[in-house]
């Protein structure tokens, strides 16, 4: 796992150097708002189909708000991600396919041209209950704020250009649980950790119609520097028309408190996407 994380850093750094060749544009001062709404739906139906197949459907909706307030001496950024979706195959009950709530607010003081101090806070949980399924039953394993995560950090960030930025600092992480403390917080209903945080963002325009957005978040507990929690979100978006897009999302998640193995999730969808603001 450690070698893979080092590889991710090398990949992002290479992309940063490549992006740095673009001409740097000074952002406008004041508020900038961007709220993106995505909706996708897929459906399969079979009737007397000799090759076989199961009727199925799936839908997902995403709301991605971004509000940034820029001044000459500081920048205040607020990000959100609200994602929910379900799927159904054959006679099975509809099951959750996506469920995510993420909020983050960061304040950066522009002390130097590229390296600047920051403070940040972020929260993460889900909307509804999650289940583990067997052939005959389902067992609830998570719910709203069970678990819930809150993290505060302070440190310094490096922003060589508009496409790439990264930050490194001291972080305080809290995990909130109720019924599922044994699964997510080593048996504690409230768990507090102190460690180091790294967050790297990369935005690339790969062509006139394809864009890439990625965020790699790392956290290491002071007591266990040999174990690094990783959360890597990737989004590729291809624009077919003004409102119809093809999206591919890939997420890698690793937290030893939750599972000794890394977790992977990927989604390919065609749907509607447009700016609300």
Report the β-strand fraction as a percent range.
Answer: over 45%
Number of domains: 1
Q: Which CATH first-tier class would you pick?
A: Mainly Beta
How many individual β-strands? Answer: 14
**Major sheet size, sense and barrel closure:** 12 strands, antiparallel, barrel
CATH architecture: Beta Barrel
Give your account of this protein's structure.
It is built from two helices and 14 strands. The protein has helices at residues 2-19, 181-184; strands at 30-44, 56-70, 74-89, 95-109, 115-125, 130-133, 138-142, 148-158, 164-176, 190-205, 210-221, 228-239, 244-254, 263-275. It has a twelve-stranded antiparallel beta barrel. A hairpin with a 3-residue loop joins strand 2 and strand 3.
Key features?
two-stranded antiparallel ribbon, 61% strand, single chain, mainly beta, Outer membrane phospholipase (ompla), Chain C
Please summarize what this structure is.
The protein is mainly beta and 277 residues long. The chain has helices at 2-19, 181-184, and strands at residues 30-44, 56-70, 74-89, 95-109, 115-125, 130-133, 138-142, 148-158, 164-176, 190-205, 210-221, 228-239, 244-254, 263-275. The strands form two sheets. Strands 1-2-3-4-5-8-9-10-11-12-13-14 form a twelve-stranded antiparallel barrel.
